[in-house]
Amino acid sequence: MKAFVSAQMVPEGIEELKKYVDEIKFGGWGATGKKLTPEELVVEAADCEILVICYEDINDYVLDNMPNLKFIACSRSGVENVDKEAVRRHSVPVSYSPGRNANAVAELAVGLMLSALRHIPKTYHFIKSEQWDRVPWDIAGNTSFKTFDGFELSGKTVGFLGYGAISRKVTKLLSGFDVKVIAYDPYVTEWPENVTSVSLEELFSEADVVSAHTKLTPETTGMINARLFDLMKPTAVFVNTARGGLVNEQDLYEALKNKKFACAALDVQINEPMKHDSNFLELDNIILTPHIGGASKDIIAQQTKILLEDIDAFFKTGQPVHAVR
Description:
The protein is of the alpha/beta class.
């Protein structure tokens, strides 16, 4: 049996994969940094029964032209690149890798919270650009304390939009800060004792920090808008490490420009990479990072473990543990 691997895997994982297949071909994003087109994937993975992919698209063209294909393992937790209807029509089981980057995204979310509350990026910028007069410190009272006094995270209320794997990890990371945790998620039926379920409106009006951790669907697209921003405390912070499309970005820009709330910290935007003329660049109360939530070297080992768990399950039972439905 042959396998084609375009996902990144640790060397030990490749050795483990060899226990299941006779031959492994490598290519695509994990090997070259270039995502293969469906046409290129069909050529490079010809005659392979197993695909271990990352960003490559799986659609009717791929499935029609790979008749020997028996199983597809995807190293991503979001499978926007997989046409679910197509794989159902072709009866090819597909797995995904839930939680592979949950730790990384959770840690970044906490980092952005602290950065926004304590003005860390802004003060670094003034030091780096040698604007010493913007961050003075002397005994005459002309101090950074007066210019950049922020808020401590300890004792505050943190609200989560969506309460899945990442929100739960953030909650655990925040346990040492003695925060109150509230969350809005209409799909959660059982809540931990230390988390209070609230309405969407209560989330935005009560939280000192609102952190978005929900999937982008037709239902959630643009759901974070002016109506919700108007409810926020003037001292509040908004953090988004989920998807840019959750936010009406023009409404966010207007809210920040008019100081409706204190600061936004975004790891994701609708346009990625962001446009050079983005109006966000005009603001001094926003923190922007270039979608680095999953930029952790540790993720490769984590996704390898999940991939192998599903590959093992497929060979033993014919179905992966984390099946795409």
